[in-house]
Amino acid sequence: MVEPHLEVEAKLVIMSEGPQVVADEIALLTSISGWTLTDRRSVATRDIYFDLPTRSLEERGIALRLRSMADDVLIAVKGPEIGVGRALQREELELAWAGDALDRISDRLLSWGIEIPECRLYSASREPHDVLTTLGLVPVQDRKTRRRLGHVRQTPLSGNAIAELAVDEVIYHMAGRNVRHHEVEIELSISSGGAVLEELIDWLCQRWPVLEVWPHSKYATGKAIAALQERADLEIDGSGLMSLSTYRRLSEWLSDHRGR
User: Helical H runs in 95-210?
Assistant: First the structure.
C-alpha cells in the first residue's frame, strides 16, 4: 500500500530571455557534479488543482491535485510547505485513481481538519473530474508540463537513486491565454541527501548563472501569475514566455503573500 511520504525538493527558475536553450542543455546532461544521470525519459502531464469554494485548502497550505499522464490518472494531496535550506519540504500522498483512493485522500484531508462531505459515497471508477466537482470542489489551477528527467546515482549500476533531476516546461492555462514557465527541479529520493542536494544546486548555478533558486511550488507560481494578470501586470511575448521583469514582480508578490 502506498503511504504518505516526505517530499523534499529544490527548484531553480531559468531567468533567461531564451530559457528553452538552457533547458535543452541541462536535459542532455549525462552527469552532474560527479554523479551519474540514468534512466533518462520524458513525460507529459496535465495537472488540475481543486479546492472548496471557501478556499479552505489553500488557506491551510494544502493542495489537492488530479494528474493525467498517458493512460494513468493520479490523485494527490500535499500538506503545508516548510522551507529547509534552499529546498521545500512537505508531506505528499499520491494514489492511482482506483479502489479506495478517494477514501484514503479524504482521511488524509480530515487529519488536517478538512472535511469533504459525502466523499465516501463516490466510487473511483467514475470520471475523476466529475466526481470532484460533484463533491463541491472547484478547479483553481490548470496546467500542462513537459518533464525531462533522470535519476542521480553514484554510478550507473548503483542501487537506489539519491535524487531525481527534472527539467520542466510548464504551460499555465489562464483566462484567455497560456503562460510558459521553465524550471529545474531536484527531488531527493533518500532522507540523508541534504548535502548532495546543496551540492547539485551549486554545481548547476555555477555552470548556468541564469539559474536562480526559486523557493516556490508550481501551484504558488501559477497563483502569482494569475494575480499579476488580474492587475494587468503580466508581460508575456507571443509564445507565452514571461519577461524577466515579470519574474521579479512574481517573486515580490510571492514574498508578500507567503503563508497566506
Answer: 101-111, 128-134, 194-207
Q: What is the pTM of this model?
A: 0.93
Supply φ then ψ for residue 173, to 5 degrees: -95, 100
Angle at 82 between CA 45 and CA 103, to 5 degrees: 55
Say if CB 136 and CB 122 are below 8 A apart: no
| Closest C-alpha among 118, 112, 84, 86 to residue 4 | 112
Q: Which three cell numbers stand for residue 42?
A: 520524458
Distance CA 167, CA 25 (A): 10
Each residue's pLDDT tens digit, 208-240: 999 999 999 999 999 999 999 999 899 999 999
Cell numbers 483512493 correspond to 101
Interatomic CA distance for residues 99 and 76, integer angstroms? 14
Catalogue the long-range contacts made by 81-85 (C-beta closer than 8 Å, 24 or more residues apart). Answer: 81/217, 83/215, 84/8, 84/194, 85/194, 85/197, 85/198
What stretch of H or E contains 254? Answer: helix 244-256
Over its C-alpha atoms, the chain yields an Rg (Å, rounded) of 18
d(CA 153, CA 173): 35
Average pLDDT, integer, range 120-127: 73
CA distance 95 to 149: 21
